[in-house]
TrEMBL record:
The entry's keywords: NAD, Oxidoreductase
Protein name: D-isomer specific 2-hydroxyacid dehydrogenase
GO cellular-component term (any): cytosol
Family as reported in the entry's similarity comment: Belongs to the D-isomer specific 2-hydroxyacid dehydrogenase family.
Keyword Oxidoreductase: yes
Record PANTHER family: 2-HYDROXYACID DEHYDROGENASE C1773.17C-RELATED, 2-HYDROXYACID DEHYDROGENASE-RELATED
Coiled-coil segments: none
Gene Ontology molecular function terms on file: glyoxylate reductase (NADPH) activity; hydroxypyruvate reductase [NAD(P)H] activity; NAD binding
Organism: Papiliotrema laurentii
InterPro entries cross-referenced by the UniProt entry: D-isomer_2-hydroxyacid_DH, D-isomer_DH_CS, D-isomer_DH_NAD-bd, NAD(P)-bd_dom_sf
Pfam family, one: 2-Hacid_dh_C
Record-annotated D-isomer specific 2-hydroxyacid dehydrogenase NAD-binding domain positions: 169-339
Length: 373
């Protein structure tokens, strides 16, 4: 059975002069630490087990926690505001480290916790595994993690399945004009025949980025009757179910363009005025990958001109801000980065994260490592 250990950390010395806001931040840190609950196993005192640090609120199934606690002493650091993250991590390391593995729990993957030297430097070089409960990891400084000799793992399975479902939702809504019909009907216009609705069985869907999530989307779209093509840097080695084309061929053929690509220097603003010009008139664009792969102003211009019929967007360039032109358009379906969010996601994502840690402790390798390029 696990025990509950109260954490008592010594106050941080703050030199004079200090601002009221600085004092409040320091006071907030201390209050959190004085109330922090650290979950440890009964065997903690013999030092035989590695230590694992969970950052945020734990939503794992108890059976998974029990399995983790059989192989590790588990510490939980509750959320703190962004200016206090580095100090909070440093205190945990000083009083309870070193930690073999660190997991950012799902609620905090975008703000304020980030795997980077500025926030997590106190963990290195002893920490050997960093786990992020998400498929995308552009916010994590994986180069820094690798430079410390550590392994990085993401959690693509649970998030991936649900992201594919969320992508399908936007695909259906945009191609059939669901939101446009909804607004028109609410405004008193019954059965507005000017609203275009696409027949999936006669249309081509092009996916840019046919990874594991893209394959799921492609399979569902094919089930609806779409012809499916895709463009990657190279032909998929995982599946030969779908037609591989160049980016330019995809733009020329696709009635619907679905973006499933990671964010990097090559893909940032990949969809801009030039790319949209190469697409078919009346194209539909769906994006559940990362917001900055689209130049939002260029997309707004294309929506206003009619070049782009509709867009379904779950991600945005400057989240949580959304371009006013997108918010104002009747032809844009917007969801607030929740394509993967379902009632069980916090639990299943946390479970997947912890299984990565358990596997790493047992074998030296997590279940889903991200390897250096």
């Amino acid at each position: 059975m696990p025990t509950i250990e109260w954490v008592r950390l010594e106050p941080v010395h703050i030199g004079d002069p200090v601002s009221t806001s600085t004092l409040l931040v320091a006071f907030f840190i201390e209050c959190l630490f004085h109330l922090s609950l650290v979950m440890t196993s009964q065997e903690h005192s013999d030092g035989a087990k590695p230590r694992v640090l969970l950052l945020g609120r734990n939503h794992a199934d108890q059976s998974v926690m029990d399995e983790l606690e059989r192989v590790a002493d588990v510490y939980i650091l509750p959320p703190v505001e962004q200016p206090a993250v580095s100090a909070a991590i440093g205190k945990m390391v000083a009083q309870h480290g070193p930690f073999l593995a660190v997991v950012i729990l799902y609620e905090l993957i975008y703000f304020p916790w980030v795997f980077c030297e500025e926030q997590m430097g106190a963990l290195a070089p002893e920490t050997k595994l960093y786990v992020l409960p998400a498929a995308g990891y552009d916010d994590a400084d994986v180069e820094w993690i690798w430079s410390t000799g550590a392994t990085f793992a993401n959690c693509p399975t649970e998030v991936g399945e649900r992201t594919a479902d969320g992508t399908l939702l936007l695909l259906l809504a945009t191609t059939r004009g669901l939101t446009t019909h909804f607004l028109s009907t609410r405004e008193g216009r019954w059965r507005d025949h000017s609203i275009k609705s696409l027949n999936w069985r006669t249309k081509t869907l092009g996916i840019i980025g046919l990874g594991s999530i893209g394959i799921k989307v492609a399979q569902m779209a094919r089930g609806l009757g779409f012809r499916v093509i895709y463009s990657n840097r190279r032909r998929s080695t995982v599946t030969d179910e779908f037609e591989f084309v160049t980016r330019q061929e995809l733009y020329a053929q696709a009635d619907v363009v679905v973006l499933m690509t990671p964010l990097n220097d090559e893909t940032r603003h990949m969809i801009d005025k030039d790319a949209i010009t190469q697409m078919r008139d009346g194209v539909v664009i769906v994006n559940t990958s990362r917001g900055p792969v689209i130049n939002e102003q260029d997309l707004v211009d294309a929506l206003e001109s009619g070049k782009v019929l509709r867009a379904g967007l779950d991600v945005f360039e400057k989240e949580p801000e959304i371009h006013p032109g997108l918010k104002a358009s009747r032809n844009v379906v917007i969801t607030p980065h929740v394509a993967a969010r379902t009632d069980d996601l916090l639990v299943t994502c946390t479970n997947e994260s912890l299984y990565n840690v358990i596997e790493f402790i047992k074998t030296g390798s997590p279940l889903t490592p991200v390897l250096p390029h």
